[in-house]
Amino acid sequence: MLRAFLDFHRATLAMKCDGLDDEELRRQSSPPSTLSLLGLVRHMAEVERTWFRRVINGESIPLVHSDREDFQVAYDASTATRAEAFAAWQAEVEHSRRIEREAESLDVLGHNARWGEDVSLRLVMLHLMHEYARHNGHADLLREAIDGTVGA
Fold this sequence. Notes:
This protein is mainly alpha-helical. It has helices at residues 2-17, 22-26, 37-56, 82-102, 121-147, and strands spanning 109-112, 117-120.
């Protein structure tokens, strides 16, 4: 059930970007926000990598879009392309799926250094659903502003 809901939210973000070109995907929301659909895709690549690979798998790897550990860099999609952003995001989703699939149980623990505590794979999956759901709400508004498309 957790896997199905998480994949639903992943698919929803992709659907919100369907049919748009790079310029439309980079279009920012209302000032002063610089939020864009492409920025959300880039951000979710960081989220997937951080929670599954770095926290649950304990991999010592840098962020996808920043070598300074700056999570905000991903939101700057001003020079990004659909191809680059989606390739990075989809690669991280595949890593996440593999880690979840190969885990002994949802009780597997990883250490979240930012929180200073151990977290279970179950919590990570729930956290990602929450993160996607929140950002898919942003994506709804961004997409509607681009071409009037609404709904999931």
